[in-house]
């Protein structure tokens, strides 16, 4: 009887450890997919504006002004998305609390880390295509389309 109780306890601990490990891996995978999605969408939106950026450069705008414009607009979209995400997380906090193990749903370290990571991804997604476009001759960009 005592060995059965020990085996049951060991099995329960192993199951919890497996669940926690699987949850962390799935959370990491979800964060990775969200980062790739944000990067892809923002880079695509900036690439679609190549013609507009080229016209701005041809009319005398500086590279810094164009990159600032693109970053401001891209980060505004990400800020709106994060605000909606925070509101959704706050609304669903009680429902999510029963589904996760080992982490509180309102953990500020996790929320802050995810927000910083996604903000950095958005920054890179906007800056890279905008920077490439400003280094190209505006006449070449306008002729391509």
Kindly describe this structure.
By secondary structure, the chain is mainly α. The protein has helices spanning 2-48, 50-58, 63-91, 93-97, 108-135, 138-144. It has one domain. The protein has six helices and no strands. The longest helix is centred in the N-terminal third of the chain and has 47 residues, at 2-48. It is elongated. The mean pLDDT is 80.
SSE arrangement:
Elements: H1 2-48, H2 50-58, H3 63-91, H4 93-97, H5 108-135, H6 138-144
Give a short summary of the structure:
The protein is an all-alpha fold.
Q: Strand portion, in percent? A: under 5%
Main beta-sheet annotation = none
Over the alpha carbons, how many angstroms does the gyration radius reach? Answer: 23 Å
Range of helix content: over 70%
**Straight-line distance between termini:** 79 Å
Average pLDDT: 80
Query: What is the 3D form?
Result: elongated
Category from helices, strands and their pairing: mainly alpha
> What is the multimeric organization of the chains shown?
single chain
> Which residues sit in consecutive blocks of at least 5 with pLDDT less than 50?
none
Query: Which H/E pattern describes the elements?
Result: HHHHHH
Number of strands: 0
How many structural units, i.e. domains?
A: 1
